[in-house]
Amino acid sequence: MRESRLYEINEIKEIIDNERIIPYYQPIISLAKNKIVGFEGLSRGVSILDGSLISPIKIFEYAHKYGLEINLDRLCREKCIEGFNKLDFHNKDVHLFVNIDASIIEQGRGSNYLFQQVLSHGVSPENIVIEINESHVKDINVLVEFVKKYRKEGFLIALDDLGAGFSNFERILLLEPDVIKLDITLIKDVDKSYYKQEIFKCLVKLANHIGAIVVAEGVETQEELNCAIEYGAHLIQGYFFSKPLNLSEESISNIDFRIKSASIQYKSYMSLKVKKERISKRKIDSLLNHIISEFERADINEFDNLLLNFVEINKDLNLNMECVYILDDKGIQVSDTVFSSITKDNPRKGLIFYPSVKGEDNSLKKYYYDLINSKTNKYTSSPYISHATGSVCRTISRIFKHENNKYILCVDLIHKL
């Protein structure tokens, strides 16, 4: 135990005293501009025993253990800024993202150390994005003071790891970040998770409203990239484009190739999606026109039987219909809710988790009041989770006339991710 402790102390002191730190850079991509717009500066330690690389997690663990955090933190940033300056990216509208833990800010309060580091290498503060991980902050006032001072000097401020754990949205209010980085836990498999997609869209909407740039961090697949871009991420970072590496002309060229390829794939994905939606819309419109023509000729007492037939027809058309029902012009349901055979029971019971029934007032539902107050006869909702079944679905509502009275046919379709 004593030998292990002695080794750790010697290792971290040697790394700091002899600047045994190698800067690594991970590109941050704008697919809209088809280019690299920034790099996150990361660090690796070099072992005193055999020259092997030591992960940042390990070296910062040693530094924290022996009270050398601020020394190591400053050295790592020094090496990243120095390397960035040598690469001559600061004259090409490319930004360097540097990490700083809020606890380090508290220790170095008022030192202006980072500002001096940047100036000493001839890098413009406007090319530096300060990434703040604020999970361990004790004095929020120190953090706010730091952000105000550095923003005044031209630095951009990024809030890191939003969406990880129980992120404190109060920090957004207090720090007013220029950049918001969405955590990898939110990005991983986002193309397969409706919940992640909705949280992602909410955070992007928030960022857009406050004028912040969104970076989707930890993108590893084309599918995750497609989803992130489609739902509004401005910038992309992750292994899909490149792991953190020593930069060279060859590595930059490889990344540029990946960007062009990803852009082509995304355009193809969106083109196919739009085509599928157009075909599906034509099928649904045709089916609705057919069934409405039958409703207009039928007796009102036959509505429930016609709905049953409507659902049976859907089986062969593969439209993923979940249920159908009819409202009158006041929003009162005049039919049963008729389910298709593909509908599953909702595991949630009680409260409001049940299908609407004949005689129920649906006038406060968007598919009623948005339609009835518009100049069109058709409304399609955004995807949502049905209280009746727990499925992700969309509601299409369509006005039709029967004996001079208005009715609304409502069709719930299961939404495929």
Structural notes for this entry:
There is one protein chain. With 417 residues, the protein is of the alpha/beta class. It has two domains: 2-247, EAL domain (TIM Barrel, Alpha-Beta Barrel), CATH 3.20.20.450; 279-414, 2-Layer Sandwich (Beta-Lactamase), CATH 3.30.450.20. Helix content is 43%, strand content 22%. The protein contains 13 helices and 15 strands. It has an eight-stranded mixed β-barrel, surrounded by five helices. Strands 10, 11, 12, 13, 14 and 15 form a six-stranded antiparallel beta sheet that branches. A hairpin with a 4-residue loop joins β1 (21-30) and β2. The longest helix has 49 residues, at 249-297.
Please summarize what this structure is.
By secondary structure, this protein is of the alpha/beta class. Helices cover 43% and strands 22% of the residues.
